[in-house]
Amino acid sequence: MYAASILGNLATGYASDRVPVRLVVCVSCMVSALACWLLWGFGTTSGLLVGFSVAWGLTALATASAWGRMVHVVSGE
Q1: N or C terminus: which one in the chain shows less Cβ crowding within 10 Å?
Q2: Greatest alpha-carbon span in the chain
Q3: Could you give the CA distance from residue 46 to residue 1 in angstroms, rounded to a whole number?
Q4: Structural domain tally of the chain?
Q5: Please, what are the averages of pLDDT over each run of 10 residues along the chain (77 residues)?
Q6: Is the pTM of this model over 0.70?
Q7: Closest-CA residue to 1 (of 37, 27, 40, 38)
Q8: Nearest to 61 by CA among 3, 16, 8, 25
């Protein structure tokens, strides 16, 4: 999970510099919610739980990379 968060942080930081940060955070939240619901909720095998860990690490743990852009948006440029 934490190894995936390294890639997720890089991707989230890159995306938040290129596209609107609200879109990046919204997509990240939706993917992490779907990962919880589908992969962890129905995870009866270790493969699904590993998939959940990777999806969660890529999305939910990476929102801190968007904080800089969020502060920039909130402060009004």
Answers
A1: C
A2: 47
A3: 14
A4: 1
A5: 91 92 91 91 89 91 84 81
A6: yes
A7: 40
A8: 8
Which residue segment(s) compose the domain that 65 sits in? 2-75
Spatial distance between the Cα atoms of 28 and 58, rounded to a whole number of angstroms = 8
Going by C-beta distance under 8 Å and a sequence separation of 6 or more, which residues neighbour residue 72? 21
DSSP per position, the chain: -HHHHHHHHHHHHHHHHHS-HHHHHHHHHHHHHHIIIIIITT--SHHHHHHHHHHHHHHGGGGGGGHHHHHHHHHT-
pLDDT of 77: 63
